[in-house]
């Protein structure tokens, strides 16, 4: 089983080729570059490194969000296009679950990233030898609201990119950026998608959508 994995949902970019769940090659970056200009370059590089070609792919796994509206759309669009062109299965996974898997930790892990205006995209998962379970539903919430939900799990550990400005407001955290190659060992976190019907999972409406809804409801 050869899987191509793609995550462009935030500032970091992560792409990988896995064989039977184990990483053959991966490229992870955290630089501020437009993912639309780099993701296919990195994907092509993966094939060169691993000695495979696109026709060897059995399935594609993409981070469906939440995250940057533009970033999520880029990854999902690339994944859908490739899956359709190659005639392979398409799977998606939460961007937050990818961060949890990338930590290489066990226990209650709370990945998060900046949602602006004092809010974060966040969730909490229980990771162990038997897999990963969601214990706090993925959502868009304030840090205070998240802390209230995490109070039930006093041994939890927060995961976030230490380069994000809001990290100053988090008392203790483990610097973690996505490595999507790690997610295949948590099959329960993945869901099969319809190539034509799949849509990103933003968890909140954009400002443009919010303004449009406000105008139409007047």
TrEMBL record:
Protein name in the entry: tRNA (Adenosine(37)-N6)-threonylcarbamoyltransferase complex dimerization subunit type 1 TsaB
GO cellular component: cytosol
BP GO annotations: tRNA threonylcarbamoyladenosine modification
InterPro entries associated with the record: ATPase_NBD, Gcp-like_dom, T6A_TsaB
Listed Pfam families: TsaD (PF00814)
Record's keyword terms, sorted: Transferase
Biological source species: Salinicoccus hispanicus
Domain Gcp-like, residue spans: 31-147
Chain coiled-coil ranges: none
Domain of life, per lineage: Bacteria
Source lineage: Bacteria, Bacillati, Bacillota, Bacilli, Bacillales
Annotated GO MF terms: transferase activity
């Amino acid at each position: 089983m050869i899987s191509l994995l793609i995550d462009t949902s935030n500032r970091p970019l992560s792409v990988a080729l896995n064989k039977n769940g184990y990483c053959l090659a991966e490229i992870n970056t955290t630089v501020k570059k437009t993912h639309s200009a780099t993701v296919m370059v990195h994907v092509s590089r993966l094939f060169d490194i691993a000695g495979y070609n696109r026709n060897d792919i059995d399935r594609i796994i993409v981070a469906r969000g939440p995250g940057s509206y533009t970033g999520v759309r880029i990854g999902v669009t690339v994944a859908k296009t490739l899956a359709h062109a190659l005639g392979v299965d398409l799977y998606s996974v939460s961007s937050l679950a990818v961060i949890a898997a990338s930590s290489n930790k066990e226990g209650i892990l709370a990945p998060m990233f900046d949602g602006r205006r004092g809010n974060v995209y966040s969730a909490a998962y229980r990771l162990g030898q038997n897999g990963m379970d969601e214990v706090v539903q993925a959502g868009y919430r304030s840090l205070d609201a998240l802390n209230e939900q995490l109070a039930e799990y006093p041994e939890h550990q927060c995961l976030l990119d230490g380069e994000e400005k809001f990290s100053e407001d988090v008392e203790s955290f483990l610097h973690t950026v996505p490595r999507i190659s790690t997610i295949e060992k948590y099959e329960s976190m993945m869901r099969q998608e319809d190539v034509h019907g799949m849509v990103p999972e933003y968890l909140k409406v954009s400002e443009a959508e919010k303004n449009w809804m406000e105008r139409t409801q007047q």
